[in-house]
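B., you asked whether I could sanity-check this one before it goes into the benchmark set. Here's the sequence:
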Amino acid sequence: MKNILFPPRNADRSSPSQPSPPLQLLAVVCAGDQGLFTSLYTPLAQQLPREPMEWRRTYGRAPKMIHLEANFVQFKEELLPKEGNKALLTFPFLHIYWTDCCDTEAYKGSVKEDMMRWQNSLRAHGSADWVIVVVETNDAKKKNKTNILPRSSIVDKIRNDFCNKQNDRCVVLSDPLKDSSRSQESWSSFLLKLRTLLLMSFTKNLGRFEDDMRTLREKRTQPGWSFCEYFMVQEELAFVFEMLQQFEDALVQYDELDALFTQYVLNFGAGDGANWLGSFCAPVRSWSGLLLRRPIDMEKRDGIQHGEASLLDLRSYLFSRQCTLLIFLQRPWEVTQRALELLHNCVQELHLLEVSVLEGALDCWVFLSCLEVLHRIEGCCDQAQLAANCSHTVGLWAYATDKLKSLGELCGLVSDKGPTSEDLNRTVDLLAGLGDERPETANSLQSPYKKLKEALSSVEAFERHYLELSHAAMEMYRAIGRLRSARLVGKSLAEFYMRKGDPERAEAFLQEALKSYVSEGWSLPVTHTRKQIAECQKLLGRTEDYLQTSALLAGDVNLSSEERKHFCQEILTFASKSTDKCSYSSPGLHFLIIMGAFAQLTRLQFHPATASVHSGADLQVELSLQSLMPVSVCVQQLAASIHFSLEHGGTHGRSKGTQKQTNIGTVDFSQGNLSACPLSSSAAGPSLELDEIQDRSPSDNSLNSTGMVCKNTHLVMRRHDSSSSPDTPNCVSPPTVALDDGAHMLKVQDITLEPGSNSVVFTAPSGDPGTYTLRQLCATVGQVQFVLPHIYPLVQYEVYSQEPLLTVEPLSGLTALHHGTSYSQMLLVSLHNNISVKMREKCDSLLSIQSSEKVTSISLPPTPPYHTLEFQLEVLCIIPSGSDRPANERLTNGEVRHRPRSYSHPDTPMTAIDQRMSIDCPWSIYSTLLALTFYIPFKTKHSLLSAGNRKYIQVCVQNVSDVNFQLVDVKLTEKQHASLELHSLNTKAQQLVCSKQSVFCLWEVRWKADLPSCLQCVFSANFSPLNQDISAFKPFHYHFQLERVTTLYSVQAEILPAAGEQHCRSGALCGLEVCITRLTEPGENEMGEESKADSDGLKTTKLMYEVADSSSNWAVCGKSSGMVSMPMLANATHKVQIEVMPLFAGHLPFPKIKVLKYLPHTAAPAIQPDPDSCVENDSLSLLDKTLDDQGDTASIRSRGSVHSVGSGEQQQRGLAMPRLEPFSPGQVFNHSHARQVLVLPATDDHIMEVNAT
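And here's what the prediction gave me:
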């Protein structure tokens, strides 16, 4: 028999890697035959928790599956709950009475009375959850065969006496120790009943307990309410959940207690304090840290229960319980996160509550707590998990390092002189507050207690432990990619080394920290770190580095003026040393420092502003410098190095009047922060230094291609974290500055730079023609030279001395000639056959022009130097006819003259023609090639019209331009047949063609003998814009060719009404008679493979006809298409009868009748078919249907294409097959093309039934 364990201090949970047994099992009180229960206890205790039960909770919470474990205890009166006792852990959830009585006398004599006493006791204490178990055994039957009643009668008596309305409270258990099916079934039923009753009782009492707890929490605003009492109540609920292994619900209870207490502390800090908080404001006497190796710290729990716990005790106990549950939930990394928040919050809460704490005590508590949490996590995770999740623990390592450093500074363990007597007394007081080491860590060599005690014992031990923790934290930060945090720990380590007198190691860590501050734009940390670096550099004797850092600090606005003057004076003092031994003309003896720390270039101005002068002219450069020094500085020399290049200047450069305006005269330079880079600059990186590159033709200097090149790719493509731009004053480690010593320099001697804006004027060299680029700026102060390595944006000026330059601008109609010296020369313009050049009326009268067939000469007047001569030329282009190809000719420069090609321009409906013109200058060996684009204002098209055997040619001239034209002398001629007459039917001699309008011209073709099969026609006219003189008319020609103009067949159709009808009616069948007549004898080109001789020797050809109605007015009944054999004789006729049905009434147009040529498979195709397909497009829209598979029909496969006719085996890929080919326009004349027929409505006879009442 087990006893109830309370308080739950004996539960062994020291091994969190394995789930431990519950804190307290559900209490089940057993009465009756204790010997009987003892025999059944073992199987009952083992099998009860095996099967899970569904636990349905109130308030809509999700159901869960739980295993019930019970603590079976013997019935005693004192175990029953007293009135007012609402404890849940000691509450008996179920009472069981055990009996195996099978004798009536025994039942009446003793068992019944015992049951009555048992039930009265339960009723007196309000316990309504009970059950009576009657155990049936075969041994009892054998012993009392004469006096026993049937088992059912005993059970019935018990139910009648005690279970009148609750028959389920009496359970029969048959032979529970036997291994039979009946016993197993009875045992299973009993266990299910026991689980159900126990769960019902637990749910009911738990809900009552939660309601009481909520009621108690709602009274928290009343006087006398105690948080400690409420803490014990809600923790009891957490114990119950933990007992059921519902660790998440148990954790919620502690989180609610944590949040409630935190809110009260915050309210206290805001002035709204609770009375019970006074017990937590007592001075802290112990700072032994967290204790996480016990599942329940009973000492601290008792202190909370009696209201004697301090703030640290409450927080320590609460976190230890949360830590235990989180480890059970296999969430160890959340423990580290919560621990870090707890340690920071506890420090703040102690300040809010104004708790008296010994100086350094909190640091000891935080240090011990960090190591305790880390050791607890190490105990439940292996090394691989710790390494993979170091991001969760590195915060505790860094916090412990920081607190150990604070303790070292407090106890005098950091200074190089060692601790004083006062420091030793303080150390003794701190160690006394730690108390004795806990038994759980007494045998551990690396316990937090031992580490702290050893670290505070001596300077060497402290240094060893502090360095170990610092390097461990830095390595973890680097492993997870948090370089900023790693450098922050390194900066703290640098301060430690500075106190220890080791500036060399300190500087390395300070430089790493400075990188992060500069890249992220933290100005104040940058200033503070630079001061520390300057101190290290001064101690190490690094003069150049110290001067660079001092210059940065002297210009740092975050420092006071006294500090800035101090660092500036450091520079000036060093610069004034041994000045007589050094000269600014010997740069090898100077220290080079980035100028951005000394002064900033804000503006540069050219005078003149064009920054382009001819050779020998005066050019001044004015620099605006912003001095960052707090005092006036005398500069012995200010020089700017210049790079000279012939790339753009000289005789091949641009002239003064037409040069590309890249130099605007004034260049403003961006201003950066003086102490740290802004965030935008660190994110975007250094500015791009771009330069334009051009590829020009060596013959005519025309632009072939242009592009951009980045000149500082090595800065743009680097890692932004490694360093900052060397051109800025914020660089961490300034790179080695290379000072250019070119032949061209801008220099000024002995100037004084005042704090703020300064203006310096240079006289720029302009002797040699070319491009001058300002590269560097250098200010010399004694032995120190401040250098600006790159001037960006790019600053250039040009010096030019040019030969005469010809510029042609065809779009504006302007030709400009620039002379560098006096010239009186002649220009030669080479032209195509169909273009000409003439001078405009408003041009200079001194110009003379002489034109020949292919060359136009322009004589120029004398012109003074650097003078621009402008004149305008008109270039005319004759519209090409498009037929004749001239022989290859060459221009004056030897280039082959190419025939211009016309093309459609995307921006205008007019057709464009490109022409080329060559201009030769006597002062240059190269020709200037000019591409000209002309637009044809007309679009012309022709058509052949037929009326029986008569033929007409129609020409349409469409004006696609925005100008109105007039046409005269409109003619049409045929070039090959003199006997052919083209009779004009045009009545007007002059035609007006308005913009976007068309004019149609018509001629009748007349012939004497036979009509030729092919006509070569030329349409000609003269045109000019409207209201122009006769001299303005220009010729226009249009060549075209007409083939197959002879009419071969005529088609006539008649629609006959049904028999007995005079007119056709809608819905009634009508007859369509199609008559196809051959009009001419066959020609030579027709006597080919498409003709075939019949049995009589008569040549025939096959035609295919098709009747279709696209307007849906007719329905073709029967076959709508077929093939006919047509004799190749004049006046040969073939008739076809087809039944059609009109669908509507009115004057309906005749159905459309098509006639196609049927070519056998041996005929050569007019257009070679696709080798992968046996389909030929006939450009006609046929019906989407399949004709009958007969000898005179074709199989129509798809719309717009006609397949060959034949069997499936003949239609294999690659075989020649029959095909259909349409006739050319004019070869078939349809007489019924525009005819209509009258269709009457159908007779409408209806029977109407009328009822009259």
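One thing to flag: The mean pLDDT is 78. Otherwise nothing jumped out at me.
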